[in-house]
Design a protein that fits this description.
With about 240 residues, this protein is an alpha+beta fold. Helix content is about 50%, strand content about 25%. It has two domains: about 1-155, Sandwich (Jelly Rolls); about 155-235, Sandwich (Jelly Rolls). It has a four-stranded antiparallel β-sheet. The protein has a four-stranded antiparallel β-sheet with strand order 2-7-4-5. The longest helix has 27 residues, at about 130-155. The chain is globular. The chain starts with a helix and ends with a helix. The chain binds adenosine-3',5'-cyclic-monophosphate (CMP). Adenosine-3',5'-cyclic-monophosphate (CMP) binds near residues 50, 82, 102, 105 and 142.
Amino acid sequence: MASNASSLHTVRRSMLLQRVPLFADFSAAECTHIAALLREQRYKKHAVICHANDPGNALFLLTAGTVQMTVETADARELVLGLLYPGDFFGEMALIDHLPRSATVTTLEPSETLVLMQEAFVDLLQRTPALARKFAETLSRRLRKACDLVRSLAFLDAHGKVARILFTLSNERGRDTPPGTLVEMRLTQHDVARLTGVTRETAAHVLRDFQQAGYVRMTRGSIVVLEQAMLAQLAQV
Ligand code: CMP
């Protein structure tokens, strides 16, 4: 009975694993083998999955929900480095460079992960060149995004910074609907402030301007981008 239950869990984890792009080219048999090494973990909204500066010994594959990576200054100001969605992984940096966690990872909504411990991860990476290549591709894309964030913080004004995050969300998470690009996500003024590095008051002011100009419509739980080209122009992308 117990072994039946555990093989059912392995099948479930294997199916979840096949939806993670990193493992998309693995056969069902390979996924089942890896699934036996994974642990499932569920989190409530606003749960901290890992803390910046803590030691790290596990890789996380996000199978449901959204997480944000943040860093804090000594005076407790916080900057969001980015968001990750189902199919993304995180927690690889500490495993690769053996330094502490580079950022705090927090859930923005109820979320689920598959957890792979360091030893199994390193072994898998060494044995599977295709996996190592996909890892490198993803890390390059993330570096590009990090460069884009630096560019935004250094050169854009508040309207440009807010336009950039709304444009990025609509590009990454949006789906086409008759009025515009719909992003189903509850984003408060406070969230926009943390995602852009501006104050909450400034975020509120810019969002009001954008709504009055007809670029976006924001409600509880969703954002509709009506003028994506306008946002792109302001964000200089
Ligand atoms: P690690 O440093 O082990 O723990 C925090 C994780 O957040 C890190 O691994 C990455 O997976 C992720 N992370 C940190 N900075 C960024 C970033 N700029 N873009 C995307 N992911 C990041």
